[in-house]
Amino acid sequence: xxxxxxxxxxxxxxxxxxxxxxxxxxxxxxxxxxxxxxxxxxxxxxxxxxxxxxxxxxxxxxxxxxxxxxxxxxxxxxxxxxxxxxxxxxxxxxxxxxxxxxxxxxxxxxxxxxxxxxxxxxxxxxxxxxxxxxxxxxxxxxxxxxxxxxxxxxxxxxxxxxxxxxxxxxxxxxxxxxxxxxxxxxxxxxxxxxxxxxxxxxxxxxxxx
Length: 209
Known about the structure:
By secondary structure, this protein is of the alpha/beta class. It is built from seven helices and seven strands. It has helices spanning about 15-20, 55-65, 90-105, 115-125, 135-150, 165-180, 190, and strands at about 10, 25-30, 35-40, 45, 75-80, 110-115, 205. Helix 4 packs across helix 6 (about 165-180) and helix 5 (about 135-150) packs across helix 6. It is globular, with a radius of gyration of 17 Å. Mean pLDDT is about 85; it is low at about 1-15 and about 205-209.
């Protein structure tokens, strides 16, 4: 049986203390069909194919675990889009979110939670950059804009069926690097304001491996 260990909290290094420290930050755009995983200069999409239910959860958690090792300094996870709370599979997606964050918590890996609007503001400067378009086109165009940012601003090629998930994860990783004081690219304050609304880690409780 695994026992919980009680010890002093762990804190992230401050920007002032880091010196030449180069943090390893991972962005996670969780999805049951195509989870985006990205770092500072790479991105991939974990696609479970025809797997369903517990098999799909186990496969996705394993794929994430291969990228999020114990030497990661921060993970930025996309939070729920509550306006879509009634969509099919929402309860299963929520289960995946808790499995992943529990994985991080047990390994004492700090994680932040950014909702889709935070991510889009950081990428484009606006929460709804395609608001002027008909409703049916907004989501598609906004996703394309975020993908363009990932490719042109961050130099990460986001291709294939999971390109939008890769792009979302790339922006989440960039947000984490910026918050830690190590941005790969400087963005305007109109974009950086998104960082103020993110749930960033403070004290990290200790847990057994």
